[in-house]
Amino acid sequence: MKLYNTLTRKKEIFKPINKNKVKIYSCGPTVYNYIHLGNARPVCVFDVLRRYLEYCGFSVLFVQNFTDIDDKIIKESKKMNISVKEVSDLYRKEYEKDAKGLLVKKADIHPTATAEIKNIIIFISELINLGFAYKTDSGDIYFNINKFSKYGKLSGQSLKDLQLGSRHFLSSSEKINYDFVLWKIAKEDEPFWDSPWGKGRPGWHIECSSMIRTYLGTTIDIHCGGQDLCFPHHENEIAQSESCNNKKLANFWLHNGFVNINNEKMSKSLGNFFTVRDVANKFGYSVVRYLMLSSHYRTPINYSEEIMNQCNSALLRIKNCQESLICAIKLSKIDITNEIDNNLKEDLLKHKICFIEAMDDDLNTANALAALFNLIRDVNSKVLSKNSNKETLVFCKDLICELTSILGFLNEERSKNNSNDEIEYLLFKREEARKNKDFKEADKIREELDKKNVIVKDTNKGYFWKFKD
Ligand SMILES: [Zn+2]
Fold it and tell me: In a 10 Å sphere around its CB, with 0-12 CB exposed, 13-18 middle and 19+ buried, how is residue 42 labelled?
């Protein structure tokens, strides 16, 4: 499998440090509000990365943090007149609801900044002892980026370029100071923890460096996050960790692109800001997930109502094919002499090969989806519309299921309020009524099914049903 590594700016063959174990760290949310559409993208995309690596036979250790102490959380707690912990607990739970809705697997470890304080203090002490950090006049502890010669290597900027970046705003002698805070001395009314440098709290960047070392070790396989985190957050993580541990922090750095709204940048000031919850309430979580995977993760994606409707139809196409197969299997008779036609099997497996090739090429979910739809087209035309035997039907169902589970689609409908059981029950009652020649009752049930978006087709082999397109 090849992955595009931001660090080297090229696609490289992925090889984990330990043969079968992959260690991944993904920067998680700051829990002060509902997550927005842009936050959902890394969550979905790197969930697919994890699922695919597991599909390929690796065991994955996936760590994602929660930033539960920060200026924004403190501000929100004052606004809501509740404690910082109450704010972070509340929005952490809301994040978990969204992540569950998006069918994202829970991280193996979900550390929080406030539970990591002890290790963070040790980390900062080491940086001070090694000469990488200093105390400011106000008592805060800062990292001195001039001491780390490789600063800028991830974002591809030299320190000199960075410092002179906006020099036309500054007099020639002034330099922009990119030193960043490791420990902030608490102001009045702010939560604090005791430290050798006084009562205060950690800066944002240091928590990730500390958590990675605590839970995954000094060097990890993959570090991922949104493109907006590349500079300065990830650059600062590298500076802290590599200065302190004298080891490379991560072999691969993966960054996902932005989510635009109607081809404009999403921002509160433009009034085009959407939370995942808002969009999921309108279109369903699975459609949000589909949108996130419909383009290659590094390209920007666009959100609009029209695109969401297209995503919804695409998802229904997959779902209808699966439901039709399940129904056809139920109606088909077991006949051990019937085997799947080898030419047909080969034709169908070609689509799986294309799917895998796309995933191996830097997790190209857009091309993988194209391969899945080619498979569905063939299943519809070469299997479902013909008198196919049970073995063929089961083969198709399992193949589609294998591929959709890599993308993490469609479990939602099956687990959600067992709606299919209710549909099955109504179909059964309708069959009963038809057998008893009670066509009035059968029509009534058909209307009820229609309200549930279900179409029933009667054939000489029995009935089929599917959701409306
Ligand atoms: Zn981070």
Answer: buried
Render pLDDT for 368-400 as a digit per residue (tens, 0 to 9).
Answer: 999 999 999 999 999 998 888 888 999 999 999
Mean pLDDT, the chain, integer: 91
pLDDT in tens, 199-243: 999 999 999 999 999 999 999 999 999 999 999 999 999 999 999
Which CA distances in Å does 127 have to 52, 117, 147, 240, 351? Answer: 37, 15, 11, 8, 52
* 221 CA to centre of ligand 1 in angstroms: 15
CA 301 – CA 184 distance, rounded (Å): 37
Within 10 angstroms of residue 291's Cβ, the number of other Cβ atoms is 27
Q: Are 201 and 184 in contact (CB under 8 A)?
A: yes
Q: What percent of the chain has pLDDT over 70?
A: 93
207 C-alpha to center of ligand 1: Å? 7
How many C-beta atoms lie closer than 10 Å to residue 105's C-beta? 14
Evaluate whether 201 touches 229 at the Cβ level (below 8 Å): no
- Domain-wise residue ranges, the chain: 2-130+205-303, 310-467
pTM: 0.87
Q: How much distance in Å is there from the Cα of 225 to the middle of ligand 1?
A: 8
Tell me how far the alpha carbon of residue 25 lies from the centroid of ligand 1, in angstroms: 8
Distance 394 CA to ligand 1 centre (A): 44
Centroid of ligand 1 to alpha carbon of 256 (angstroms):
14
What is the 64 CA–ligand 1 centroid distance (Å)? 9
Bridge partner list, 223: 25, 253
The C-alpha atoms of residue 217 and residue 221 are separated, in whole angstroms, by 10
432-450 tens-digit pLDDT = 888 889 999 899 989 988 8
Give per-residue pLDDT as tens, 158-205: 887 777 665 455 455 556 789 999 999 999 989 999 999 999 999 999
Amino acid at 359: M
Distance (angstroms) between ligand 1 centre and the Cα of 250 equals 12
Which CATH number is associated with domain 2-130+205-303? Answer: 3.40.50.620
pLDDT at 424 over 90: no
